Amino acid sequence: MVLVVGGAGYVGSMLVRELLNKGYAVRTFDKFYYGDRGIEDIKDRIEVIQGDMRNIDSSIFEDINAVINVGGLSNDPTAEYNPKANYEMNVVATKNLAKLSKKRGIKRFIFASSCSIYDLGFGGEDVVQNEEVKVNPKATYSRSKYDAERILLKMVDEDFSPVILRKGTIFGFSYRMRYDLVVNTFVKDALTKGKITIFRGGEMWRP
Prior knowledge:
SDR family oxidoreductase, Epimerase_deHydtase, 15% strand, 5 helices, NAD(P)-bd_dom_sf, Lipid_A_modif_metabolic_enz, alpha/beta, 6 strands
């Protein structure tokens, strides 16, 4: 069984469906800050636990073989609005999830980090970014993701192999839709207004 933390969110609600389609049993753990609409039509096919990732009981790891953490605060505005909550969710909760997973003998732990840690969104060179490139996390959100990465990497051993995904810009349909993501905003504005708005002279870019 796979535990998806943040399973009712923009990414999580789609991930849960993909796991079900692949034949996996799924348990979700989510605070439902934005409600449970993202998974309301599949609740009879999954285990649903409502709770705060900052206060996780070890019982949720029962019968779990893999953990995927797509929970926490997910953008700069929310992180800047509440830096304390951002750190507690994105760093401390991730660390605790990993420690409990390792204690339970769960080898596979997947963490959703972000391309934001490169912080090359304005100007810069057109260079492929990979694991060898020096990161430059400047904002509260990106620093929290990088801090969590470093914690996870220090926990690596032959019995615990975390995977870190530095996701590029996510876009497209979700059962818990977000319109604060740039590509989704472009599409929405193109359909509803007949135009899109480009800021900073078109110099900004995202992977």
